[in-house]
Amino acid sequence: MCINSPCTFLLSLSLPGFVMERCCSISSASSCSASPGRSTATAPIPKSISPFPRSIISVAMVDVSKWPLFTLMSAQEIASVRQACVFGTSANEAIYITHDDEVYVFGLNCSNCLGTGDSQSTIVPRKLDGLSGKKVVSLSYGSGPHVLLATEEGDMYAWGHNGYSQLGNGTTNQGVCPVLVSTNLQNKRVIEVACGSHHSLALTHDGEVFAWGYNNCGQVGSGSTANQPTPRKVSNCLQNKAVVSIACGQTSSMAVSDNGEVYGWGYNGNGQLGLGNNGNQLTPCRLAALQGLCVLQIASGYAHSLALTDEGLLYAWGANTYGQLGTGNKSNQLSPVQVMAEKERIVEIAACHSTHTSAAKTQSGQVYMWGQCRGQSIVLPHLTHFSCTDDVFACFATPSVMWRLLSMEHDDFLTVAQSLKKEFDSPETSDLKFSIDGKFIHVHKAVLKIRCEHFRSMFQSHWNEDMKEVIEIDQFSYPVYRSFLEFLYTDTVDLPPEDAIGLLDLATSYCENRLKRLCQHIIKRGITVENAFSLLSAAVRYDAEDLEEFCFKFCVNHLTEVTQTAAFWQIDGNMLKEFICRASRCGAFKN
After folding, report:
1. How do the pLDDT tens digits run along the chain, 591 residues long?
2. Maximum CA pair distance of the chain?
């Protein structure tokens, strides 16, 4: 939850035929499908299905703070989050599940999509009691929006917009709170859900696909264009096929079978079904152009599609108005074309039915993006600095929704920075002690040499200190020197302004310019009438020109009060004279 910014580590282990990765999100070996907003952490593949090896196993933390909605939450609240999804036409709604399996929602609440029982928006997370204790394995959302959620037990819940019966309850009434969807699903265990704009798909444990909702283009796969009010099994070409993953475009549907075949149905005006034509399909059709390839993952954008094979090859087809196919132009493609052929093996692809953005991750952890990115049309895959595809959608997609249900792992793993911070003043691992005012501070020579030029010089063979186990410090106070050493381990300073003056002196002596700037910021934030003149004196003494100017202006602006403090009359005579002259030149004594 890579929550960033914390360091993220990527471990790639090459095995025969596939790649195992530790990266920024969780997906189970059961499915690598990129259904918009849905979880890839689904229940295990049924024993009756024998899927080929999946290419992505991810278990590190994702930084949900990249999504503006989550910046409202405290660090403690973020730490309680296990899964999260941002959705909605403007990315104004969010749902998250805690480690205790409590489900919370907050945001605008369009079409009752928060499921709180009312139409009120909320900036404060509200708990959905009806889902309490249920382990969520898959989640998806539509454009209304409506929301589908599958639990570990195989139950499916729906709520939100229902103008086309996309909730599957047989009505067109809004779903104000989560309701179990059971029609035609008795004794079926739902392991994955996917939503188009106003239609829905569910994948069961035994590899069957059910569809319902809006069907103007055949996206339900029933053979007609009549809306489907309740879940209906999709058959025809899928009959006797074991499906392992599903995905939805706005008004199209896709499925991948256990032998790597891809099927599509619904709207095809931009070629998003990849059939070589642009005619709508009322029932599933196999993508003949992918014959001979074994597809692991399918991802559907607004009107384009991506497919990833077991050899790490990426194919794209459909709409290309924004360059979302990554072909270098904006021409639609009616059949799959290979993309990023010159790049290394691809291990993950990402797209979302509410955006025109595409993303992919390579075996070495490089993340590329293309398509509509913050209003720009990027027609070729562009290498980013991100460590996971989710960050592409957080920072560049419009709207900035999540393309899947994110899963956060809050384990005991520590980053390098966290480990260094933990070992500061640790007697168990230190190899050096500083003695100040009779107190010891335990440190590590290697860290000091890496972080500070002063210590790099000190710990040379011609310095006496290089052979010592205890170094006495008498020119600085204990709080000041401890703060300095802690800064070398953490990059932070936590001192009151008065002590920061001493640290400013140390930073000046040791030529630590960044620390010097930090001290000046602390002093500026802590300036008062009582300490202003003392701080001004320190700024002059340590040649901190910016701080000197700041303190001088503060003293002039509060001249009457400052001149009545003890610090003002205890100051050196020459400095007092210089201050009065300078203040006079600024017009401080004019009536």
Report:
1. 333 333 322 223 232 333 323 223 223 333 333 333 333 333 333 333 333 332 222 333 456 888 999 998 888 888 889 999 999 999 999 999 999 999 999 999 999 999 999 999 999 999 999 999 999 999 999 999 999 999 999 999 999 999 999 999 999 999 999 999 999 999 999 999 999 999 999 999 999 999 999 999 999 999 999 999 999 999 999 999 999 999 999 999 999 999 999 999 999 999 999 999 999 999 999 999 999 999 999 999 999 999 999 999 999 999 999 999 999 999 999 999 999 999 999 999 999 999 999 999 999 999 999 999 999 999 999 999 999 999 999 999 999 999 999 987 655 677 888 899 999 999 999 999 999 999 999 999 999 999 999 999 888 867 777 678 899 999 999 999 999 999 999 999 988 887 888 899 899 899 999 999 999 889 888 899 999 998 898 888 888 888 899 999 999 999 999 999 988 888 888 888 889 899 988 887 775
2. 97
Cβ-contact 325, 304 below 8 angstroms: yes
- What is 416-586's CATH number, 3.90.550.10, 3.20.20.10, 3.30.710.10, 3.30.559.10? 3.30.710.10
Instruction: For residues 75 and 63, give the distance between their C-alpha atoms in angstroms, rounded to a whole number.
Output: 11
CATH fold for domain 61-233: Methylamine Dehydrogenase; Chain H (2.130.10)
| pTM: predicted TM-score of the whole model, two decimal places | 0.71
CATH 2.130.10.30 in the chain: give the residue spans. 61-233, 236-412
Which tokens in the block code for residue 116? Answer: 């709180």
| Domain limits, CATH 3.30.710.10, in the chain | 416-586
Q: What is the DSSP string of 199-252?
A: EEEEEETTS-EEEEE--TTSTT-SSSSS-EEEEEE--GGGTT--EEEEEE-SSE
CATH class of 236-412: mainly beta
